Amino acid sequence: MLNVSTQDLVPSPVGPVDVEQAEAALVERYPRLVRIAYLVLPPTLGRNRRVLTAHALVQRALPRRRVPGPAVPGARRPEDAVDPGYAYVRGEVLRQALVAGLPLRRAALPRRAQLPPLLPQVWGLRLFPRAGGADELALDQLLSRLSAPARAAYVLRGLERQGDAEVLRVLASVGAEDPESALAELAALEEEPGSEPVDEPGGEPGTRPGERPERVAEQAGPGRSASGGSGGPAGPRLSGASLLESAEFDPCTLQARPGDLLRRRQHGRAALVGAVALLVCGALLGLPGDGWGRNGAAAPSYARNPAAEAALDPAKVKRVSPAVWPGAVRRDFSVWPARGELAGDADLLRRALAVWARPGGAVESSATPGTPVGPPMGPPQLLFAGRVDAARVVLFHDGLRIVRYAEPVEGSAGAGLDFARADAAEGPGATAVVVTRAAGNVRYLTAPWVTGASVRDLLMPGKEPWRLGRDARGVTDAVPSPALAKECARWNTLELTDDSGGRLLGDLGELLPARLLWGAPDAPVDATGREARAAWARTACQLTTVVGQGVRSVQAWRFARQTLPEGAGRATWVCTRAETWRGTGSRVLAQFLPPDRKAPAALASRAQDAPACGAREPRVLAGALWQAPGGGWYVLAAGGPDVASVEVRGGVTARAEGPVLAAKAAAGARADLSATLEDGRRMPALR
Hints:
Blueprint: E1 11-13, H1 19-28, H2 30-40, H3 47-59, E2 71-73, H4 84-100, E3 125-129, H5 134-143, H6 148-158, H7 164-173, H8 179-190, H9 222-225, E4 254-258, H10 261-285, H11 306-311, H12 346-357, E5 364-367, E6 381-388, E7 391-397, E8 401-408, E9 416-421, E10 432-438, E11 441-446, E12 452-457, E13 466-467, E14 479-480, E15 492-498, E16 501-506, E17 514-518, E18 525-526, H13 530-539, E19 551-563, E20 570-580, E21 587-593, E22 602-608, E23 621-627, E24 633-639, E25 643-650, E26 654-657, E27 660-665, E28 671-677, E29 682-684
């Protein structure tokens, strides 16, 4: 059914459009033109490249000389008149945006719009529009399912307020193939059974309560940052065109994030080493005689090494049978079966192994601290190969590392490669691996012995966990991750169950989630009990200090209780220790929990690479300057159960028998704490 508009009139030609007129229209309507280009460009480009390409297309839309004016419909009212300069520039923008969505063909030279833009360019930053709400995400997901002409038709109808007749005319004038099919595609998507319209947020019809559509994956790095679902058989219809005016689709109001800083530094070093090597090779080749020669000491190139060739052969990748793990002595990654519908795709595995061995310049790579990033030492074990969201993902295990390769479904440009230490991972440490992460969501691949999965918010200890769905491959549904959240409003954790009990795992921005524990250093347990959840609810936000540090487990321990002066109640001291896979780099936090159970913990002291609160040195001493409700200031100190006395010197001098101390002090006072253990040894406080 065609829309009715004041522009559904017979178009008539207008006078020629000169360069100055087109430039004035472009400058005046530049944000709108860039928004049109951004919406019509294919989502597979990724948001950063779509932003730059949209600006480039608009800036290239100016004519070089005077050109014939486009045919525009006559206006019934003066305010409805269409500027010929704007109509011409908009047509050029649409024409180039449609060309940019065409696939590259080997037999034909690529057109200019299909190539990355020469200008503008931004070095060292990634730019993307601000994130919108659930309605914008749903609309973006639905637009990704449309062809380029259908997206252009929707933009003309929704953003430009044009009727179907004018949409057909504009699409035909910019060279779109079969404009009628574009409108038919829109109509077919709007009439899907079970669909509901997308409207503005705020409880209006079109958004189911609690519904949060998943986001289409960013193709700039599916291994990194991967994203929401494929749209499903039914969903919101393409209505609510006013959403196109939102910040989600505004490529002129941008957010900036850095690129891969470590990789940039590595490239600089590699360039320097390459230049030196080139000079040395040139000098050696210029020497008389045979140079290195056939009998020299240099080994063959990597690709000719037999062990290296075996590591790159997809036919020699290790695949474990699903019948192995039930009878295995150990439950670790070595008994995980090869899962995924693409486990037999030799081409995909060959690309993944080749990128692992020799990652190109277009590959985005990351590694947790202390993880080697070299090629496989032999044929690795395949854990998973399948399509997740809009990416093909491959997971390998070589005994020391978990390696994830991800590429877009369309082609392999923008592939990602991630490394994580996994040596000696057994039992709870080998129950889940991150498959994709993007748009604030994360999906896990769970171990074959996991019988149930749920999500628990650490900040709400009294709330029951909600069930997390898993498919037949063991891949979970997408769940919001706190690792990349800007605020600590919730801290979702993964709770897995098996025949030995429950496990609580936290996403800290790495391939392997960290195990969350509770209890004394010599006998910690999984933090699933009521007391553990109550303590973690007040200390979970401090986990942001160990994100991306290669953390294997985080253990919290209540080492002291203290009655506060002036009848202020009873406080708790908790020590939190983060252990890493590499053994070094551990971090210790001493936290003070005031009597108010809803108040978050206050960080009293911290230490790096310290043995305190660990199995080797379970002792701890911490202090803080505290103000009582009546206004008085006190130095508080607390130690573990084996502390015989606590002493404070400096701005305050006091001594107390036992593991706790409270001494009157002045505001801003600074003091040195120490303790005497029951065996007579002295122990300083954490700083």
